[in-house]
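Standup notes, structure subgroup. Blocker cleared on the zinc ion input:
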Amino acid sequence: MERFELFRYRITLFQLFGFKVSVDASWLLLAVLITWSLAVRYFPAVAPGLATLTYWWLGLAGLIGFAFSIVSHELAHSLIARQFNLPIRGITLFVFGGVAEMEDEPPSPKAEFWMAIAGPAMSLFLALVFFLVSGLFVEPGAKQLGPIAALFGLLSYANGMLGVFNLVPAFPLDGGRVLRAILWYRKGDIAWATRVAAGAGSVFGFVLMAVGLASTISGNIVGGIWWFLIGLFVRAAAAGEVSRLMTRSALSGTPVRRFMSSDVIAVRSELPLNQLIEDYFYRYYFTTFPVCEDGRLIGCVSLKSTKAAVSEHAALLTVASAMVACPEDQTVDPDTDSAEALRRMQRTGASRLFVTRNEKLVGILTLRDLLNFLAIRAELSGG
Ligand SMILES: [Zn+2]
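Run returned:
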């Protein structure tokens, strides 16, 4: 999964095989809930007669085991993605588990299939390993499990559930991605394959919500609410993927020149900084202006670089002193595909791209224009 704006408050923990592993604040809530329910409910029930503190240590060990299991699952996705040259932004633990954030769509059905299947395969493999480890600690003839056997038994079960649940063929679950990859491979139509897999996701999300509601009514309030929320999340993610794909197909094949405006507000490097501030920043509210010389783009001047220049020296400065190289991500060719330009805006957060050809600034592409086009197109096609 990818592109979650959910993760406003995340902490990066460490790097693993070059992937950044982070936790979202929402996961901390889940972590407390898990530790508590293991220490107070699960372990006293399956391995009775131990000290209270021992149960809390077991609860903590269970939590670490869960985190390890989720990170391993996402790591498997990420390593296969890397094999197919698909960049992964990082692995994040959040309230519904984990996510390996892809920067782009999978390049082929084959890539999507192997990437998607890798996660559940890792989970099922870990389930087997933990099951065998747990078996080593079972004392023959004992009536109840020892604490270590109970811990590994739990981790085996959790990994088994993680693997099986994710194999449900409902997008955005891994099984839904496998389904999409197979349909995409057979018909060669990613849009249709996505609609089918996302349709299954939408139905499955609805089933989860119904199950959540039923178990809330029957008394399992926390678990019920949790399943209900997962159902909502699955439905939203499925719908989001369809609209993303529609956006992509509406824009792809159309070059940037079709949407760009050739009326660009550029500045000269000799312009005094105080005029830049008064006549440009305060007038147009853009945070970056292109700097041109005879139509050639020679650099950019941003609010940040202007502020740095102004605070060091005072008046009598010109744009030249605040000019920096334009970020490479912020310039496109007029023949660049518009879908690619939109992806670049989403990736970098830039709402304007400078369109250049042979170093000449020939136009500007704004996010607003692209969105207006999409809105009008959606209106006309009745969707
Ligand atoms: Zn997965």
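Discussed briefly. The beta strands are 10-16, 19-24, 88-94, 97-102, 288-293, 296-302, 331-332, 352-357, 360-366.
Next: hand off to the docking folks.
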